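Figure 6 in text form: structure in, sequence out.
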């Protein structure tokens, strides 16, 4: 069974003005789908692996044959990272978290404002292409981390809660080289309800 492209949970233009419709369309139908297609192609001869949930596949890279391992890291990561990226954004969202995640952020970072500053800095200083994340680390600590290219935090034992894509294709049509402006605008589409659900699931 091949992996499939999850339906985008909103229209291409639903995240405007922070993220324009053309960027969402290209990002989802071209970039995200290409990672999916390349992942399925790499696993054609290994149906036992393609039946695993993507996070389970990425959690233990040693199970992937060495001749396709880096291809799966690149494209499986790209597939999974984008699945999460679309999930934790939404129209008419933004603001601040509530509930258990809000309390955890306050405890871990000294308040939402400090968390937002640190997370934005992690996204801004990710040299080249990659992501910034809010995760549970292997010790159960809420942490901000970066990954390079399409590497997944799942592969280093983290449980992802929130993610921002800082590859140029995520923002270049509208923001060109102004990554800081994209990051600032991105906070206006963060779906804290989805992040709260992921936080509660990660705690279990």
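Output sequence:
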């Amino acid at each position: 069974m091949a992996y499939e492209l999850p339906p985008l949970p909103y229209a291409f233009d639903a995240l405007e003005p922070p993220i324009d419709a053309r960027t969402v369309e290209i990002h989802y139908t071209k970039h995200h789908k290409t990672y999916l297609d390349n992942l399925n192609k790499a696993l054609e001869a290994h149906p036992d692996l393609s039946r695993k949930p993507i996070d389970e596949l990425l959690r233990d890279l040693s199970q992937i044959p060495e001749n396709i391992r880096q291809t799966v890291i690149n494209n499986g990561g790209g597939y999974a990272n984008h699945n999460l990226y679309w999930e934790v954004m939404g129209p008419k969202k933004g603001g601040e978290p509530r509930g258990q995640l809000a309390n955890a952020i306050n405890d871990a970072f000294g308040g939402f404002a400090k968390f937002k500053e640190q997370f934005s800095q992690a996204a801004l200083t990710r040299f080249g292409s990659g992501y910034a994340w809010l995760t549970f680390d292997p010790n159960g600590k809420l942490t901000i981390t970066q990954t390079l290219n399409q590497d997944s935090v799942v592969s280093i034992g983290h449980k992802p809660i929130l993610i921002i894509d800082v590859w140029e294709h995520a923002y270049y049509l509208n923001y060109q080289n102004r990554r800081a402006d994209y990051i600032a605008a991105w906070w206006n589409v963060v779906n804290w309800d989805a992040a709260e659900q992921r936080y509660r699931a990660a705690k279990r």
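Caption detail: Strands lie at 130-136, 142-148, 159-165.
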